[in-house]
Amino acid sequence: xxxxxGSVFWxxxxxxxxxxFHEFGHYWVARRCGVKVLRFSIGFGxxxxxxxxxxxxxxxxxxxxxxxxxxxxxxxxxxxxPALRDQExxxxxxxxxxxxxxxxxxxxxxxxxxxxxxxFMLGRSDFAPIVTATPHSIAAEAGVQPxxxxxxxxxxNVSTWSDSLDAMGNALLTLSPMPLTVRQPxxxxxxxxxxxxxxxxxxxxxxxxxxxxxSLAPPPAIADRVKPGQPAALAGIQGGxxxxxxxxxxxxxxxxxxKLVQADAxxxxxxxxxxxxxxxxxxLDVTARWESLGGEPAKWMLGIASPRPEPATVQYGPVRAxxxxxxxxxxxxxxxxxxxxxxxxxxxxxxxxxxxIGIAQYANASAQMGLAWFLQFLAMVSLxxxxxxxxxxxxxxxxxxLYYLIELVKGSPxxxxxxxxxxxxxxxxLFSLVGWTLYNDIHRTLLS
Length: 448
Description:
The protein is of the alpha+beta class. Among the domains are: 125-217, PDZ domain (Pdz3 Domain), CATH 2.30.42; 225-308, Pdz3 Domain (Roll), CATH 2.30.42.10. It has helices spanning 3-32, 94-122, 138-142, 161-174, 205-212, 231-235, 254-265, 318-344, 356-368, 371-390, 397-410, 416-447; strands at 37-52, 58-72, 124-127, 130-133, 148-153, 156-157, 178-183, 189-194, 214-216, 225-226, 242-246, 249-250, 270-277, 280-287, 289-291, 299-301, 304-305, 311-314. Strand 1 and strand 2 form a beta hairpin. Helix 1 (3-32) packs across helix 9 (356-368), helix 2 (94-122) packs across helix 8 (318-344) and helix 8 packs across helix 10 (371-390).
């Protein structure tokens, strides 16, 4: 499956699951509150499939999959049969109307917790946060050394590389000095502080990560596997051999080995490889081969596979997984509201927001990484959908909740004129947000 079609497919899966769950929240609570539901639609526009349920509700899947809605019996939209007046939405108490509207975002939060719970029980394969720092980067100048293992970021304990990136990303949005606890390969634990406050405000977060300069440490220069028939195997190099030097130039890690091979083989493919085998030094002559593998650009090959970074799997039993799901949901909720606040005060760039294009790309990437990663992705998008819908913008659930809170205070519903004006304002804000996020993703795609 190509990247484009894969992205489209997994976007449809993502929207289908999350929109269905969101709208089911409205539907389920409306039915419990005695409101008649006329239509339950996944998508907008013309129906491509529909049926009438035994409860009289029309269930349909529409042609435009970017959302959905639950249409209830509502006196504002036409005459209501006197026999059905007790099932009409606006005739219900304000508290029931609040419950019905809040149920959509509420069910998204429930989905977030459930998806994270399942993810933690399945186990999410990852890498240990053993890092290196780019020379002259913020991390390097703060004292991060090659091979340091990150133990905590900004006071949050981490055990995987992705958790470290998540914690660092949140710290970069606030641009406050970031405490970092690391353990050196020898076991010494050090406390460092990365001066993120020196970064300029309002830049895209990928630029901040570049300035931060932290990345997974490259694997050691050990022949994890030697490919039969390739130059290394023909010269006698074996799996487990540690490469010490190339043509007398010392090798620090596997990335350094690749760079030396490309540079020296360009002058002459005949290389002298010094290695260590079971503690014994050995020197072998290897003739590098110029070739292309798997459609990649041609380069000088030895036929040595590098060892993989140290694995780290996060997996818990049911009870601890549920506790971790609750904690992760709460932490990400705080981080999301913190990001909104940082964008409003100018510390964080609005270029960090993605549209359906970015969501599609992330959906495809996470699906390729396995079920646990896709569940985590669904959970984060579901939580974002809940928070977005709770913003006090007319046309969103949060806008309706604002109207009902005003009704509670003043003792009567908001006037129809105010609601119409709010509807226009909400649509302008919503379309502006959609347009801006689309511009962000298109601009980011063109630059990549």
